[in-house]
């Protein structure tokens, strides 16, 4: 009896090990998948099978642009910039998680008043969970719908990548709020992420009235946002709007140590167009569609918010400044003040850089009906 049981266990274990080996093998094979269209198509279809047992296809490859190696000084550039130049032209990546019904289908999508489009990455689970419970909660407010999507690529390779993708799949089963594509979710691929989102929007949510586009570490007062957008005279989303923290008269940073380093090999011009800081900005559906339209004929620049500015400029549209968007952080009037005093956040639309637990606390506090705020209230000027 005992022996039989042990044998069964051994058999199961062997099976599991074999399965693991096979799955890993498939993984390496997928990584070198040929670029043939048929394989491509086939893999693409597999993804849409609900919870299929077949291993998910990994990167389907866009070919390197070999001429990039010939660019002057190529070998002296940092690795991520070389990588950028080699794959700059790639704009098509398979979708791993899609939400065709997010806006009730393209024809009904005008019912979405505010679509929150939040740039996240696979590891940022805690941030997403907090946003779902707080300012990014999907809801009907003042008679209009707020909807939410996170836009995400992939990170890591092999089983680590699979595990993170599994996490996103689980989150999506529960929350239906993740758009994921199979590309490396790196800083220099943020523009790609934005373009892929706009492509999705054109297809599935073309009539959404307004959008908030921002990072997953911002605190946004979505009540104020709705109030502001509803207060737009004669703009129901069908006219131009693009507003946030306006940045003008700047150009590429040429110091190779900066995160934002853009060498002449990437952009020769020393000028950036006016743009809004990418931590968070508001735009109309019309403007989002126009930007997408323009993007077809503008070569990708890795800095995503500047790229938006380029698309606007080409369309002859201007970004504007909104005083209540604080993507550069909040300026407090004096030292020794509680910068988390809720009164500061009652009036803002958006602030950059909040830790998840502070988002949770602040969301509760700004809704406190007993909170009394006044510009002259001295309690704001110096907490003990
Ligand atoms: C790179 O430059 C070399 C020498 O000028 C040239 O022969 C080659 O065709 C170039 N390669 C590409 C891909 O442009
Ligand atoms: C390939 O790279 C070269 C050099 O950077 C560039 O001039 C060319 O436009 C690129 N080709 C494509 C298809 O992006
Ligand atoms: C993604 O890009 C980053 C930055 O360029 C790089 O460090 C990382 O190795 C890349 N990851 C994969 C899986 O290619
Ligand atoms: C962008 O993603 C693609 C696809 O994963 C990758 O080949 C490329 O290296 C990435 N670019 C950067 C700059 O990370
Ligand atoms: C939005 O406003 C435009 C006029 O600016 C109007 O033609 C259009 O019908 C309006 N759309 C909706 C859905 O109300
Ligand atoms: C997009 O561009 C095409 C021409 O390239 C134009 O016909 C079309 O009206 C544009 N659409 C929008 C929404 O700007
Ligand atoms: C100022 O703040 C204090 C403490 O938060 C509160 O008790 C007081 O009523 C406020 N005064 C005004 C004028 O809002």
From TrEMBL:
GO cellular component terms given for this protein: Golgi membrane
Compartments in which it is found: Golgi apparatus membrane
GO biological process: poly-N-acetyllactosamine biosynthetic process; protein O-linked glycosylation via N-acetyl-galactosamine
Pathway given in the UniProt record: Protein modification
EC supergroup of this enzyme: transferase
Topology in the lipid bilayer: Single-pass type II membrane protein
Superkingdom of source: Eukaryota
Key words of the record: Glycoprotein, Glycosyltransferase, Golgi apparatus, Membrane, Signal, Signal-anchor, Transferase, Transmembrane, Transmembrane helix
E.C. number(s) listed in UniProt: 2.4.1.-
Keyword set includes Hydrolase: no
Name of the protein in its database record: Hexosyltransferase
């Amino acid at each position: 009896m005992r022996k039989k049981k042990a044998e069964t266990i051994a058999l199961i274990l062997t099976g599991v090990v074999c399965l693991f080996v096979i799955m890993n093998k498939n993984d390496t094979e997928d990584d070198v998948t040929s670029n043939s269209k048929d394989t491509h198509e086939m893999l693409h279809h597999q993804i849409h099978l609900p919870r299929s047992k077949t291993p998910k296809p990994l990167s389907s490859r866009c070919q390197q642009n070999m001429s990039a190696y010939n660019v002057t000084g190529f070998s002296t550039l940092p690795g991520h910039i070389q990588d950028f130049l080699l794959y700059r032209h790639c704009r098509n990546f398979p979708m791993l998680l899609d939400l065709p019904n997010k806006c009730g289908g393209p024809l009904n999508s005008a019912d979405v008043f505010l679509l929150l489009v939040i740039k996240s990455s696979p590891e940022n689970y805690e941030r997403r969970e907090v946003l779902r419970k707080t300012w990014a909660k999907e809801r009907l407010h003042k008679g209009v719908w707020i909807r939410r999507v996170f836009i995400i690529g992939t990170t890591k390779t092999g089983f680590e990548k699979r595990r993170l993708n599994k996490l996103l799949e689980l989150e999506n089963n529960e929350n239906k709020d993740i758009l994921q594509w199979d590309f490396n979710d790196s800083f220099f691929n943020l523009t790609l992420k934005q373009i892929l989102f706009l492509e999705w929007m054109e297809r599935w949510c073309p009539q959404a009235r307004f959008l908030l586009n921002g990072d997953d570490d911002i605190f946004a007062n979505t009540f104020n946002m709705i109030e502001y957008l509803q207060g737009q005279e004669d703009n129901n989303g069908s006219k131009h709007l693009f507003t946030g923290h306006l940045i003008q008269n700047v150009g590429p940073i040429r110091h190779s140590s900066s995160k934002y380093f853009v060498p002449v090999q990437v952009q020769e011009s020393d000028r950036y167009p006016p743009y809004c800081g990418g931590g968070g900005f508001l735009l109309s559906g019309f403007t989002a569609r126009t930007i997408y339209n323009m993007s077809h004929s503008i070569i990708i620049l890795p800095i995503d918010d500047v790229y938006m500015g380029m698309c606007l400029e080409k369309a002859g549209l201007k970004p504007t400044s909104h005083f209540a968007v604080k993507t550069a952080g909040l300026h407090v009037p004096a030292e020794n003040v509680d910068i988390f005093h809720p009164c500061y956040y009652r009036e803002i639309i958006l602030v950059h850089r909040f830790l998840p637990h502070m988002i949770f606390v602040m969301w509760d506090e700004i809704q406190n009906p007993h909170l009394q705020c006044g510009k002259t209230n001295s309690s704001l000027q110096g907490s003990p």
